[in-house]
């Protein structure tokens, strides 16, 4: 037995104790045509995890594709077993790459043939998945201290590992579209994904996410919405005055982006999924007029792959190959964002019509 | 006088422990998972990458490029290739040494093409385009990874 498998067993036992102490609560979601069960010990984490997934609420079914057991120590009065790396003094001196990393920026990724685990020191979360049972455990010390980024894109690591087994890929991208087709919005943080996506909600285009979405290539390039959250830079809020009342963290805008759960604000604007017809790479340019410029698949991959791979624990060559296959199937365009953000939806709609 | 770049090793392989990459027709996208930098190499650089992938010796890479490209003297081409290889090594994308057993034969198509090659393009020194924007991104998001794969008990 490897440490990863042994630790997963200990962690699951601790979850059962937490469940015994605080009671169980189940929620079911339809993620990429699969039923996912969130099995909470107590209610403390529910308001931090569920809002971003609300547009995917599904029916309880007897057999799930994935079960995630969620708990925090504070509300369940249950301790987490000592982290395995605390037992291993070799780790203290281990390098974390070439960065000037401080402890907040380190994540510990561990896996064996069947079990994946990641501990994110910055957000203080532990996520593990046993792929043989499609059983996952998500733990935080205290639900009330959940980082707002976790609430906007909860359970990313677990969903990524599970999605691989379904032939799906979690990517760092947004998307807007109509039921018969849409565009993927790729690029690093700050490239303009959120502004582009939110600029479309007053048009015929629906919103499918601004940060992480699930993709499929079989048999066609297809997107599944995962999170209804939008995160806006404070400087961009003034472009969307209608959304101001929907900001859920108005008191923290000095240190956080503005967080909005679009499903709560405007459920009819949320899309569950659509065929992807193009990859758009938004770029803030400062030019007057927004325009599209065709670019190579390699350029599309450069915008999509690095930020996806660096964000997802354990991601590597397989994920890159997957995304390369995806960008080869459809055209890529740079979306040069001008001052006229109101023009964005028409440009995208026009592209979708012309193909 | 400028010192010519001299590679002390004649054979390199891709640093697969830290690097992932994808080849397109005229471009290679390379990501260094350790440093957070990513790169693209086009034309001659992409050919060079494929030859390194196939385990071709530096002297053979130089010979191949001289046979395939025109517009520069063999000495200039040799100097440019050596400098580019030194740069790839400095960025941690390649390491000196023979191919791992599992890698053998992967780029034989390009080598075969080289043997029947006719001059068809103007030589330009390979440019390794380096992107460091992920660095900032990595510094604001908590994503430095320590990997304990198959951590035995």
- Series of H and E elements of chain B: EEEEHHEHEHEEHE
Shape of chain B: globular
Extract low-pLDDT stretches of chain B.
Answer: 139-145
Q: Major beta sheet of chain A, specifics?
A: 7 strands, mixed
Unreliable stretches of chain A (pLDDT < 50, length at least 5) are 89-104
Question: How many β-strands of chain B, per DSSP?
Answer: 9
Terminal-residue CA separation of chain B? 58 Å
Per DSSP E runs of 2 or more residues, the count of β-strands of chain A stands at 17
| Major pleated sheet of chain B | 4 strands, antiparallel
Q: Between the first and last Cα atoms of chain A, what is the distance in angstroms?
A: 53 Å
Round the Cα radius of gyration of chain A to an integer and report it.
20 Å
Mean pLDDT of chain A: 91
Note the overall shape of chain A. Answer: globular
Give the H and E element order of chain A: HEEHEHEEEEHHEEHEEEEEHEEHHEH
Task: Write down the oligomeric state.
Answer: heterodimer
Helix content of chain A: 25-40%
β-sheet strand percentage of chain A: 25-35%
Let me know the average pLDDT of chain B.
81
The largest sheet of chain A has its strands arranged as 1-2-3-7-6-5-4
Distinct helical segment count of chain B: 5
Which tags fit this structure?
heterodimer; A: 355 residues; alpha+beta; 7-stranded mixed sheet; 5-stranded mixed β-barrel; 17 strands; globular; B: 153 residues; 4-stranded antiparallel sheet; two-stranded antiparallel ribbon
Describe the structure.
The complex is a heterodimer of chains A (355) and B (153). Chain A has 355 residues and is an alpha+beta fold. Chain A contains ten helices and 17 strands. In chain A, the strands form three sheets. A seven-stranded mixed β-sheet of chain A has the order 1-2-3-7-6-5-4, with helices on both faces. In chain A, strands 8-9-15-12-11 form a five-stranded mixed barrel, surrounded by five helices. In chain A, a hairpin with a 3-residue loop joins β4 and β5. In chain A, α8 packs antiparallel against α9. In chain A, 52% of the residues are buried. Chain B is 35% helix and 24% strand. The longest helix of chain B has 17 residues. The N and C termini of chain B lie far apart (58 Å). β4 of chain A pairs parallel with β9 of chain B.
